[in-house]
Design goal:
This protein is α/β, with parallel strands linked by helices. It has one domain: Oxidized Rhodanese, domain 1 (3-Layer(aba) Sandwich), CATH 3.40.250.10. Helix content is about 35%, strand content about 20%. The chain is built from four helices and five strands; from the N terminus they run H-E-E-H-E-H-E-H-E. The chain has helices spanning about 1-20, 50-55, 70, 85-100, and strands at about 25-30, 40-45, 60, 80-85, 105-110. It has a five-stranded parallel β-sheet, with helices on one face. The longest helix has 19 residues, at about 1-20. The termini are far apart. About 20% of the residues are buried. This is Rhodanese-related sulfurtransferase. InterPro entries: Rhodanese-like_dom_sf.
Length: about 120
Amino acid sequence: MALLFMSIVVLLLYFSYQRYIPVRGVSSLDEEELFVKDDQTVLVDLRDYNKSYKDALDRALCLPLAYLNRHYQDIPSNSVILVASNSVEKNIAARFLCNKGYAVKGYYVRNEKSCSA
């Protein structure tokens, strides 16, 4: 019984770490800094299609988090900047891309309040 309890606790801690602990070395960027980066850096928009369509970003590769596992090879460069709708989405994508060999330079969380509606 104790082994089962410890296994559940370890799984909960692992999933909490994946979702809520920020990724080391990935810094927050302002909206002005998104477009100042060099041409080798790709802007990856992780938001859902319905949000990114209404609030499109120039030069951004729209690749929602749900499709990232299948289509991460479509990212043309090893250097990326993430645009997410919340911090959980940002943390999951940054960890995934870092494990696949991409250099995540930074992120920008674009929430509903920053969108011009």
